[in-house]
From TrEMBL:
<protein>
    <submittedName>
        <fullName>Reverse transcriptase</fullName>
    </submittedName>
</protein>
<keyword id="KW-0808">Transferase</keyword>
<dbReference type="InterPro" id="IPR000477">
    <property type="entry name" value="RT_dom"/>
</dbReference>
<dbReference type="Pfam" id="PF00078">
    <property type="entry name" value="RVT_1"/>
</dbReference>
<keyword id="KW-0548">Nucleotidyltransferase</keyword>
<keyword id="KW-0732">Signal</keyword>
<dbReference type="GO" id="GO:0003964">
    <property type="term" value="F:RNA-directed DNA polymerase activity"/>
</dbReference>
<keyword id="KW-0695">RNA-directed DNA polymerase</keyword>
<feature type="signal peptide">
    <location>
        <begin position="1"/>
        <end position="23"/>
    </location>
</feature>
<feature type="domain" description="Reverse transcriptase">
    <location>
        <begin position="1"/>
        <end position="114"/>
    </location>
</feature>
Length: 208
């Protein structure tokens, strides 16, 4: 979807629209007795979670009608569908919105609410991608031409938060985490982290 109005007004409009669509289906109940919310959204990134196929279709139809009333529409090409039956991905079940078929995650992976989804439903590849991200980021920082103390600043305030996000949302094995930690320690030693830290500490003591 696209909208040129204020982000605050857009979020308020989306909240009202999603609330109006919640009555189209019941909560997605799990075997453990817990239930998941029907709709999860951030701005225009919306995720529908239903336990039955017919409820999912009713929800999509209801959302399509509400978006049309708001003079907006979903973009099927940017959307993805995933159907799971008895613990396995069901390729035969597809869904439509705006009278167009929504591609499945098997056809194209999708990033929803900060997390990538594909047909494997596993996080094995995400660990390797995070490790590769760390290597490429360190290479970029080393080639930026900054002094070592500023490289440490880039590590602390830019790279580490960027690495912590995938580590918090994906199930990444401990060996990959240890490899990332080893890269960080190696770069810190190469940039003279202890020397820079001691210099900052001495400067702070003199000022105090």
């Amino acid at each position: 979807m696209g909208c040129t109005i204020s982000p605050i007004l857009f979020v308020m409009a989306m909240e009202v629209t999603l609330k109006a669509a919640e009555g189209s289906a019941g909560p997605a109940n799990l075997d453990s007795g817990c239930s998941m919310p029907l709709l999860k959204a951030f701005m225009d990134d919306t995720t529908i979670i239903c336990s039955k196929e017919d409820e999912t279709r009713r929800m999509l139809t209801r959302l399509d009608d509400l978006m049309s009333w708001c003079r907006m529409e979903f973009k099927p090409k940017k959307s993805r569908s995933l159907s799971i039956r008895r613990g396995k991905v069901d390729e035969a079940t597809t869904f439509t919105v705006v009278e167009q078929q929504i591609p499945t995650v098997s056809q194209e992976s999708v990033k929803s609410l900060g997390r990538w989804y594909d047909s494997s439903m596993k996080d094995t590849r995400r660990g390797a991608e995070t490790l590769e991200l760390a290597s490429e980021s360190f290479l970029a920082i080393n080639n930026c031409g900054f002094q070592d103390k500023f490289k440490i600043w880039c590590l602390q305030f830019m790279l580490i938060p960027k690495l912590l996000w995938p580590l918090s949302v994906y199930d990444i094995c401990s060996s990959t985490v240890e490899a990332i930690e080893a890269k960080i320690n190696k770069q810190e030693n190469g940039w003279g982290f202890l020397r820079v830290f001691q210099t900052w500490q001495c400067t702070a003591e003199k000022q105090s």
